[in-house]
Design a protein that fits this description.
- The chain has 194 residues and is mostly beta strands.
- It has a single domain, classed as Jelly Rolls.
- 4% of the residues lie in helices and 42% in strands.
- It contains 1 helix and 15 strands.
- Strands 1, 2, 8, 11, 12, 13 and 15 form a 7-stranded mixed sheet that branches.
- Strand 11 and strand 12 form a beta hairpin.
Length: 194
């Protein structure tokens, strides 16, 4: 069974055209949303949603963010337990991002925590910079598109949560532009590995 689904976080569906393996996420609608046979959505509906730059790759054209003391999770129902390759883009076309706090969960088990999650958090140095799934800051949208690196995670359940938060009442944000989730297929069965 193949599963290759990307989620593009912005304010308006028609702002850009999403690539065929990705889809728009409406930040004003909570879980569950279902599109292309995938069920997903945010835990709260009061996110900040932005369209930023229609001239860059559609995956980075906007973002959703949380910039209060709230914590919320983006949930995706996976088709099966197993190994998944993930890519993400944390950042903003127009402003520096951060301090950012984000984590990946297999249901209740933490699989990844951003640098400084309980301390200073991670920030981008300026606008149009994106942190990838390995924690590397990419220096432009074009750099993220060409060089972003993936990370592989093993899920024992079919519930993926990507949590964004921030730990201060001062103006800060944790913006996410894109999340891609690809099931690693079993090569012994003659299936393709993405």
């Amino acid at each position: 069974m193949a599963f290759n689904e990307g989620f593009n976080f912005r304010a308006t569906l028609a702002y850009v055209t999403d690539p065929s393996d990705t889809q728009f996420v409406d930040g004003l609608v909570t879980y569950p949303q279902t599109a292309n046979g995938v069920t997903f959505g945010w835990g709260v509906a009061n996110l900040q949603v932005r369209d930023r730059n229609a001239g860059v790759d559609a995956r980075l054209a906007g973002h959703h963010r949380i910039d209060t003391t709230l914590v919320t999770q983006f949930q995706v129902d996976l088709p099966a337990a197993g190994d998944y390759i993930l890519r993400w883009a944390m950042g903003d076309n127009s402003y520096p991002g951060g301090p950012m706090y984000y984590r990946l969960f297999d249901n209740t088990t933490v699989l990844y925590t951003s640098s400084g999650y309980s301390g200073a958090g991670v920030s981008t140095a300026s606008s149009d910079r994106w942190i990838d799934a390995t924690g590397v800051e990419r220096t432009s949208a074009a750099d993220w598109v060409s060089n972003n690196a993936s990370a592989t995670f093993t899920f024992a359940t079919t519930t993926l949560f990507f949590e964004i938060a921030h730990a201060s009442a001062s103006p800060q944000s944790t913006p996410i532009g894109h999340l891609q989730i690809v099931l690693v297929e079993d090569t012994l069965m003659g299936q393709m590995v993405y």
